[in-house]
Amino acid sequence: MKATPKLQDTLEVFLEQIDGLESALKEMKNISPNLSAIINELKSIKIEPDLKNFQSLQSNHTANISGEINRLTELFDDNQAKLEAILHESKNKTTHFYLYILAAFLVTSGAIYFGVVCRKAEYQLNSQIENLKSYNKDLENYIKDSKQVEKYNKWIERSKSH
Questions:
Q1: Maximum mean pLDDT: which of 7-21, 41-55, 114-128, 144-158
Q2: How far apart are the first and last CA of the chain?
Q3: C-alpha distances out from residue 41 to 29, 35, 46, 130, Å
Q4: Contact, 115 vs 121, CB < 8 A?
Q5: N or C terminus of the chain: which is more exposed, having fewer CB within 10 Å?
Q6: What is the C-alpha to C-alpha distance for residues 94 and 115, in angstroms, rounded to an integer?
Q7: Which of these ranges, 18-22, 78-82, 106-110, 155-159, has the smallest mean pLDDT?
Q8: Which residues in 66-97 are b (16+ Cβ under 10 Å) and which e?
Q9: Three-state DSSP class for 101?
């Protein structure tokens, strides 16, 4: 069986712990007035920050930021104007390009048209020449076959003699 501690031993341990607590409380009482004095002293301190420096810094920053915003706005406006000029120039070049293409198309179309018309006229002339050659050849053959040349020559001789 287990031995139970004696009441006397338990009381001794209890009294030792109470003595330890008592000495800790005395120390706290000694610290407490010092701590209360420090707390009261801290309460009496009033912190008044000097915001004049911060206001001047803030106004300097505001001025710097305003200057930077103005510079960036001018830069943006300049770049926008340059881009608009480039766009306008590009539109002009594109318009000129299309006008040149139109002029080249019209010249080419005109040349093709006149070439076709001239070729057709040449073909018609060659066809007429061939028809006339054929007609003349037929007439010559007729004259040769009908002996018209001999009759003509005889007629001329008779006319000279009269």
A1: 114-128
A2: 196
A3: 18, 10, 10, 136
A4: no
A5: N
A6: 31
A7: 18-22
A8: eeeeeeeeeeeeeeeeeeeeeeeeeeeeeeee
A9: helix
Q: What is the pTM of this model?
A: 0.41
- 160: which 2 tokens? 């000279």
Tokens of 3: 């031995």
Query: How many Å apart are CA 12 and CA 103, to the nearest integer?
Result: 124
For 148, residues 6+ apart whose C-beta sits below 8 A from its C-beta are: 142
Token pair in block for residue 67? 């200057």
Angle of helix 148-161 relative to helix 52-146, nearest 10 degrees?
70
